[in-house]
Design a protein that fits this description.
The chain has 20 helices and 15 strands. By secondary structure, the chain is α/β, with parallel strands linked by helices. The protein has two domains: about 200 residues, 3-Layer(aba) Sandwich (D-Maltodextrin-Binding Protein, domain 2); about 210 residues, 3-Layer(aba) Sandwich (D-Maltodextrin-Binding Protein, domain 2). The strands form five sheets. It has a five-stranded mixed beta sheet with strand order 2-1-3-14-6. The longest helix is centred in the N-terminal third of the chain and has 17 residues. About 50% of the residues are buried.
Amino acid sequence: MPYSPESDSMPRARCFFGVLLPILILYRCASAVDSQFEWRQCEGQQLLVMLNRHPYAEAIIRGIAEFEALTGIEVAYVMIPEDRYFPRLEEAVDAKVGKPDVFMTGAYQIWEYAPAGWLLDLDPLLSNPLMTRSNYTYRDFFPGISGAFRWDGVAGHPTGDGKLWALPIGFEANCLTYNGEVLVNNRLRAPTTMRELIETGRKLREFEGEGTFGIAARGLADWNTLHAGYMTAFVNYGARDMEIEDGRLVSKVNSPEAVAVTDLWLKMLEEGGPRDWRNYDWYGCGNALGERRAAIMFDADILGYFQNVPGASPQAGKLAFAPPPAPLGAQEVKSNLWVWGLAINAKSGHPDAAWMFIQYFTSREFQLWSVLEQKSINPPRRSVFESLAFQGKIAAMAGFADVFSRIIENTRIYFTPNPHFFEISRSWAQTLHAIADGVYPDTRAGMDALKAWMDARLADVPVE
């Protein structure tokens, strides 16, 4: 019988999708029960796929030959470094020539791409038994992860409802990763609140001499600084970015909750971070943790994971994971989300073949293989995360599975969809710098100024 997340009774002797069998065989075995679906229905068609340079993309590339053998579809791809990826992608899809057919996208980009008419709604393909395997099992995806790509197209309306614009291939939640040896040596425990994190960071300033510090977190004055640790802290402490009031989007970044948590965030950086925290990005945070310059990192769980893989960094094997800080007694601990997905160009001349590609590379079989044999952490499917094979792989990562299980049901996008997301996020990050640099007399004054600017920017955004 076919494997399903509700029943772990797939006959392992014949169809077990362990690492010893090619995934091509697994697809044929798992699809044998489908009387309507046929993998080769688009045989002979050609696809162009655009990928961002990332471990998720590298796993896809390694699976293309088997996909071609299974489907008869020919695939060409281009892989572009992330600093140039989105400008190149947007130039290509805006040209309306139908190429690329399939491309990687983040969820925040959907808020621009969907209204521009660049994306194909995947729901009609997903619900068509001629086009989708009976055991594809969309509900196997964690709701907050797949829901990040659902949106009704109305600014101010949250993700999770509406059309399906992409399907996830991997994601990042945010938590604390810490050097267990450093904390033990200093008789400290993993912090649980922002105030504890600030105090711990202060105690660990220069914990092993000049150049070492307590906490690594993103600090660049750019949009991607916000979506990791900062937004995770922001929502855990009860703040919101904006709301619909009287038929328009209104900024809430100067609410008492928003001001308080922003003040805590900046104290954390100033008192426990590196002296040049304003220059820290994803790479700077990960390297500082892996090289024992930082004792704690507040950023993506997979960033800590990659530093802890044997041989990946000097501190590999010494790192452990803890939930993101939240107020004392918090019943739910939340994480803001970054997720990569695959989407279809609305102008593609081969939408059915493109769907075969997405279906294959977001399937349970491929995603299990990619987390076991490649670097596609985190898996978007519950059945993959809960599989014995994956649990065995992450067992050596102290606290990783526990933190994941605690936060996954409340991991989603907490920003409010709006067409000016990137501009607003960049200005917000710049405001954090200005507050820290003393441009404003205090945090409230800086957030008041940011609110006024945001309200003016959002004034032309329709919400109905």
